[in-house]
Amino acid sequence: MRIDIITVLPELLRSPFEASILKRAQDKGLVEVHLHNLKEYGQGKHNQIDDYQFGGGAGMVMMVEPIFECIEKLQSERKYDQVIYMTPDGETFNQSHANQLSLQENLIILAGHYKGVDQRVRDHLITMELSIGDFVLSGGELAAAVVSDAIIRLLPGVLNDETSALTDSFQDNLLAPPVYTRPAEFRGWKVPDVLLSGHFQKIDDWRHEQAYQRTLNRRPDLLDDKK
Ligand code: ADE
């Protein structure tokens, strides 16, 4: 898989991809992440990428030309499955989006800034608009990193068995059950007996029941759309 991220702040996005699982995934050749500085496509001697909005009002708008130039250059080099725009008014990103996107070959992610991008970019270039939650970040970079992380860890070979993505919260619309490690007792607080029993069926049943109760208590909405 290949992910191309377009941003005015590539330096903000470098470190998330240079550590731990995301770095290992790239080192193993399972994913390529390319950062593109939109300013390189800016206009005039100041490489302008934003301008005042028509009709007046506070806040700058990201201009249509630099974004088209950058994305069309990429699209002339390979076919992209989705051109994603990170924006607080997009669809709320969830595990199901992550699963679907992890099956794609090439993705572009555009990180918005200022008041957002000229609407013509959204109308004629973007194929998917995603938000990572009902709050406003100072730019789409961290949101792009969140979405990329959630996708990349699902690629075959990225995680080892111990950290298998199949047992994650949300993967079956249930939150993950509680987990414990040594010692079996700390300050009088004991690990549930069943986990020490060696009885795999009982452990499985206990985990499923705990996952269900936790979901019922914390996120009953997830049970509503259980297929
Ligand atoms: N840009 C600013 N806030 C955002 C959010 N919540 N999700 C995605 N992109 C954003």
UniProtKB/TrEMBL annotation:
tRNA methyltransferase TRMD/TRM10-type domain ranges (all copies): 1-224
A GO term for molecular function: tRNA (guanine(37)-N1)-methyltransferase activity
First and last residue of the signal peptide: none
UniProt-listed Enzyme Commission number(s): 2.1.1.228
Claim: Secreted is one of the keywords in the record: no
Keyword Transit peptide appears in the UniProt entry: no
Keyword annotations of the record: Cytoplasm, Methyltransferase, S-adenosyl-L-methionine, Transferase, tRNA processing
One GO term describing the cellular component: cytosol
SUPFAM superfamilies in UniProt: alpha/beta knot (SSF75217)
Membrane spanning stretches: none
Catalytic reactions on record: guanosine(37) in tRNA + S-adenosyl-L-methionine = N(1)-methylguanosine(37) in tRNA + S-adenosyl-L-homocysteine + H(+)
InterPro entries: Alpha/beta_knot_MTases, tRNA_m1G_MeTrfase_C_sf, tRNA_m1G_MeTrfase_TrmD, tRNA_m1G_MTases_N, tRNA_MeTrfase_TRMD/TRM10
Localization of this protein: Cytoplasm
A GO BP entry: tRNA N1-guanine methylation
Classification via Pfam families: tRNA_m1G_MT
Positions with a binding annotation for S-adenosyl-L-methionine: 112, 132-137
EC top class named in words: transferase
Entry similarity comment: Belongs to the RNA methyltransferase TrmD family.
NCBIfam families reported for this sequence: PRK00026.1, trmD
Role: Specifically methylates guanosine-37 in various tRNAs.
Oligomeric and partner information: Homodimer.
Protein name as it appears in the record: tRNA (guanine-N(1)-)-methyltransferase
Organism listed in the record: Phaeocystidibacter marisrubri
Name of the encoding gene: trmD
